[in-house]
Amino acid sequence: MPIEKKHYQVLIIGGGTGGIWTAAKLSRENPHLDIGIIEPSKDHYYQPAWTLVGAGTYDIEDSRRDMKSVIPYGVDWIQDKAMSFDPKNNKVTTAKNGSYTYDYLVVAVGVQYDYSLIEGLEEAFEKGVVCSNYIDPEYTWECIQNFKGGNALFTQPNTPIKCAGAPQKAAYLMADYLLKESPDKDYEMIYAAPVPAIIGVKEIAKTLMKVIERYNIQFGTFYAPVKINADKKIAYFKNITPKGEEQTQRKLDLNRIGASEDKEGLISVPFDFLHIAPPQVAPDAIRNSELANKEGWLEVHDHSLQHLKYDNVFGIGDVAGIPNVKSGSAIKFQVPVVVDNILKLQNNQKADNLDYQGYSACPVVTGYKKAVLAEFDYENNFTPDPNLKKMLVFNSAKEHWRLWLLKKYGLPYMYWTKMLTGEM
To answer: Does residue 292 have a pLDDT over 70?
Structure first.
């Protein structure tokens, strides 16, 4: 039956990890709260597993649940899409059911893909010339199995992306697969990215550079993809090395991979396989609202996650305009802060919980049955969870088979049974 209510004490926009987890945690802290979630999708996916789906070692159906099944008990699910925000009047307008008002708003809408930021990318996807674990990991696995040799190219856009480690994970898994299944094939593994380093955490970077060397991957920094020619199977990159950092750039061996550079500095790389993370931006409804900062992301405080202009608005997850690495793991430390601050405001107290320090984490699978676990804060300080010692993992910056088990089995179990239920 349609939900007739038009006002909620707490209105949550987005039924992904951040939205569901926040609703569950709020309900546990105060079962009497009147909470609604606006989310159009009928499915809820555990997307971190898609890296493994794209390597043929995880069933995508195991990453899916019916949205209805993950909505916390007592929380209303409004199956609709938020189209605009009017924070001055505490109002959200949806695509189908009109407007809803709120006392407190939590925005957890994630990111939006924008293919137009790389010329020819949409056509390349339509023609099946490129693959992406972000879009269709099952097709990635199909492309890996059908790879006959040549240049296997991996890249990412010059925009913030969720799970920034995903493009390199795909490269490591394909490299490991080829070593074991097709050792006689003639191919080059290339990872060209607009980033200054393989990862910002020096302890993890040291390990990953050894992984790159082991797989003989050409790793180039400050290469931003700008165009894809789907018919000729050529990717074009722009060198975006900042002035003064020319000596630190890792350059690709253009001759080795049959690439070239024109007079304008545009680098053409032919490919036989291309995996790409799509460019990502904040959803239109946020970018076009008063809630956005100048880059279009939700304008919230770095530590309290409270909006800088509207005290009754909070942000969770990838949409937040904060300088952390966008990942689902960040939500583990964001949700308790947001929940505490909302409950304080309800009790006429200040939202003075400033505990979020930029935590993010990335289990970087470095091959089949191997992984490292990067955990870090705003300053890229390595902050490993002491509980890993209970798993007999004493240095998570090193490759370990137990971290692979954590990625494939442990984290999905915790996600469905502990995180989305608000127990964590």
So the answer is: yes
